[in-house]
Amino acid sequence: MEIQGIDDFLTLVETRSFSKAAAQRHVTQPAFSRRIKALEENLGTPLFDRSKTPLALTSMGEHFFQHAQTLANISRAVIDDMQSRATMIPQALRIEMSNSLSSVFFPLWYKHLQRKIPKLLFRLMHQKSRESLNDLRNGRTDFAIHLNIPKIKRNFDYYGLQQHVIDHDKLVFVKAATAKKDTLSLITHGSGSYINSCIEKFLGTERFNAMKVVFESPTSEISRGLVLAGFGAALISENLVKSDLDDGYMILAAPKLKPLKTEIVLLRSEKKLSPLAEAVWENCLMPGKKQD
Question: Could you point out which of 85, 149, 228, 284 has its C-alpha 20 to 30 Å from the C-alpha of 67?
Fold first, then answer.
């Protein structure tokens, strides 16, 4: 049994949709369906009841779900152990976040912390938000950073975790300054993603459905590049495109719509951390921010 099959299974359990799961696994739906079918044939039993909407696990699927979680945790623990042994800074604290947060927010925040804690070192890992919560609970990471839109709640269980809002940002709907005045082309993220929910909330269902999706981007950085190249409009962190807006390369695609206010949230386990990690928690607010 391959790890890919385990990850496919867990993604399908999470999304309860073959199309959404295929998008998250970056394969076509027919190819993804064949992979799930191969897993079921390997195990000798159906795992999903395809007659139900949304998709449901069979009794054997429920049983296998426990094994799949265990296997996924073991696999990730092995990778984490090998990476920690291979690093040149084994004493570094571990932190997980998205590509966008790591490229725009993290460097300045890290520099702020090092002024307070000179010996601080981090090992940064890119991770899905839901998986980072599991990593926090299982001790595979010290911290995680999420982007949260207060008006659009995530369907996450934060039990056993502590949170600090350490900074704020906005999501702005932008297009290239040279783009047509009334563009209907839309650059989104993968099907079922949190950012897509934000786009629909921002635009409204009617306008969202009227726009033509021209690209599904895996990261906000790629969305930025596509916007600059004139492919369409996208909802992107203001911090990521501020210089583009200031320099006139981008403009607001829907000036009458207010940007979505966001929170940048630091998460940790409720368990006692190392002295160095506790120092990070005590000094985690960006300058000028007040504790929630």
Answer: 85
Give the position of tokens 């975790």.
Answer: 161
Closest CA to 215 of 198, 227, 202: 227
Q: Alpha-carbon distance 125 to 220, whole Å?
A: 17
Centre a 10 Å sphere on the Cβ of residue 240 and count the other Cβ atoms it contains.
Answer: 21
Cα 202 to chain center, whole Å? Answer: 19
Q: Is the CB of residue 212 less than 8 Å from the CB of residue 185?
A: yes
More confident residue, 232 or 83: 232
pTM for the whole structure: 0.71
* Encoded tokens for 279: 């120092």
Rounded to whole angstroms, the Cα distance separating 4 from 23 reads 15
pLDDT at 85 over 70: no
Cα gap 74→72, rounded to integer Å = 5
